[in-house]
Amino acid sequence: MDPAQYRADDGAPGPVLEFVRQRLDKIYSEYDGVRIDHPHGWVCPWVYRSDIDDPFVAVQQGARLFSSPSLPNHPALRAFSYVEEHQLNREGALHADHWVECLTEEQVDAYAQVFSCLVSPDGTSSRRYDLVCEVLSTLPEPLERVLERFGLGRFRVLQKVDPHNPTDVYRSELAEPIDWIMLGNHDTPTIWQLADEWVKDGRSRDRAEDFADRLLPERADREKWVAYHAEHRGALVHALFADLLTSQARSIMVFFADLFGLKEQYNAPGTVNDSNWSMRVPPDYERAYLLRLADDHALNIPYALSIALRAPGFDLVSPEVLAALDQEAQGLRDQGRSLEHLPPLA
To answer: Which range of residues forms the domain containing residue 271?
Structure first.
């Protein structure tokens, strides 16, 4: 891998960066923005040997291309490493977030050289593309430093939270302003499918207890609040959405299946079948949405806002605003109930 493929001696983009820039210019001329799934590969890709017969074993025994200065089973990677042995945490796994423990600014420059063209057409931050990066559970040090440089955050997927783990990376209270926060995404079960499961097997109680720590209004009966939200999936989902709204993240993503109260999963990761990626918003989405709002089985935005604004820390919100939100939420339910004389949804 010749460095000149990235940049020429005079600093001009090499063939690799020029290719990326041309493609991005085309994309941004046609769309409002770009989402990069798993940007790890643009900063420090996971590579594996081609002389191992079993592809699964080869991937499992792989390593980070630019972060492997002295691995016995990957001696060829020494030539590509941006870091030295003393910067590694040998007690951790090769894929762990803190395999690389520290970096100089010059090393961050090296890790960022390809990714920088995803952020701006000339490899600087002077003219920025509109970019969102899907970073889920893992965030290696080189990627974190590169994202910080360009003011980009990670995804916080609230349905994945372990309510018993205060350090879970998906928790709402750990979200930074630069992050994106969401109930779920295209690769997860819909929140309504999960809520059914949580209520049925009792896991809803743990989640309701966790939400109460952040959302319980002052002077409210905690046990009554927790019991209600644990027993009613609609209340539980709206508490989860309220938890999202009270986070520090400035950007929210709502997948259409979660908004409309659908239970079908858009994509089952790791599988190949005709149904993956095929689900669409139904033609009668407006009527279907209103019918589900009748019993809080689709996202009722005023309802979730009302829960969020009653949480501690929102003391300056007037009773008139809360009453207006409650009235609007009830109005949406009433619209749905007015349609209930029509044939039921399939």
So the answer is: 156-346
Q: What is the pLDDT of residues 50-84, one digit of tens each?
A: 999 999 999 999 999 999 999 999 999 999 999 99
- Check whether 210 has a pLDDT greater than 70: yes
Q: Which one, of 240, 168, 165, lies nearest residue 199 by Cα?
A: 240
Distance (Å, whole) CA 140 – CA 152? 14
Kindly state the tokens that stand for 62.
């792989």
Q: Does residue 245 sit within a domain?
A: yes
- CA-CA distances (angstroms) from residue 134 to 130, 143, 277? 14, 12, 18
Q: How many domains does the chain contain in total?
A: 1
Cβ count near 40 (within 10 Å): 20
Q: Reduced to 3 states, what is the DSSP secondary structure of residue 157?
A: strand
Assign 126 a pLDDT band (cuts: 50, 70, 90).
Answer: very low
- Range 220-225 average pLDDT: 97
Query: Measuring CA to CA, which residue among 142, 299, 145 is closest to residue 234?
Result: 299
The pTM assigned to this predicted structure is 0.87
The answer to whether residue 217 sits within a structural domain is yes
Q: Do the Cβ atoms of 227 and 199 come closer than 8 Å?
A: no
In this structure, the number of other CB atoms found within 10 A of the CB of residue 266 comes to 21
**Eight-state DSSP code of residue 139:** -
Quick one: which H or E segment has residue 133? strand 131-134
Q: Is the pLDDT of residue 12 over 90?
A: no
Whether 249 is in a domain gets the answer yes
Per-residue pLDDT of 255-286, as tens digits, reads: 999 999 999 999 998 898 889 999 999 899 99
Chain position carrying tokens 């989405």: 285
Q: Are 292 and 267 in contact (CB under 8 A)?
A: no
| For helices 233-245 and 222-231, angle between their N-to-C axes, nearest 10 degrees | 110
SS3 category, 333 = helix
